[in-house]
Amino acid sequence: xxxxxxxxxxxxxxxxxxxxxxxxxxxxxxxxxxxxxxxxxxxxxxxxxxxxxxxxxxxxxxxxxxxxxxxxxxxxxxxxxxxxxxxxxxxxxxxxxxxxxxxxxxxxxxxxxxxxxxxxxxxxxxxxxxxxxxxxxxxxxxxxxxxxxxxxxxxxxxxxxxxxxxxxxxxxxxxxxxxxxxxxxxxxxxxxxxxxxxxxxxxxxxxxxxxxxxxxxxxxxxxxxxxxxxxxxxxxxxx
Length: 239
Known about the structure:
Blueprint: H1 2-13, H2 15-26, E1 33-38, H3 54-61, E2 68-73, H4 80-86, E3 93-96, E4 99-100, E5 109-114, H5 129-135, E6 145-152, H6 154-162, E7 166-172, H7 178-184, E8 192-198, H8 206-215, E9 218-223, E10 231-236
Parallel strand pairs: 1-2, 1-7, 2-3, 4-6, 7-8
Antiparallel strand pairs: 5-6, 8-10, 9-10
């Protein structure tokens, strides 16, 4: 009962995000509008996350339009079945088994690191082996397993898949390379309204990222979509 009440409280506390989403959607109901999650994991099918996922909770409680599209990006092929199960009731979903990386590594096949100790859905798997080792300090890099994953940079992926149409919400959880991706992306050039991203591993780059987003025309508006409140939410400023 306690878990149920906690989940209900958390979902209710994110209602302002739903209000922002509905406000954006109401401005144009005819053209395509996109919701993008990078680092989708297993969606709301991960037992270690108590079957919760902030992005899917936000989208599933929203009133989407007929032209709304949901794009899910997840590098780990071991999560594909559960991710498809999470969104099986939605016809407007497309899943990409891809890694999002800085431009310098875009369109290369890179090693994606994980450990079986982090199973079954590998919440800290990363292109950065030291990110995994930070969470499993008794391991060495040679203990980690790897999968070769095709990659693309964030801006190239968005331009390729949305063709300049409006992105209502972009949620990023890119284990171990969040700061690199955020600083590498020109968000001002994207047709983006709301950006939610994990802040736990930004470290000394946090101030640089906030300045970068401000310079790109975004302002901080509160906690993002993550159900543990690990995200920050930024909104495009309209003058």
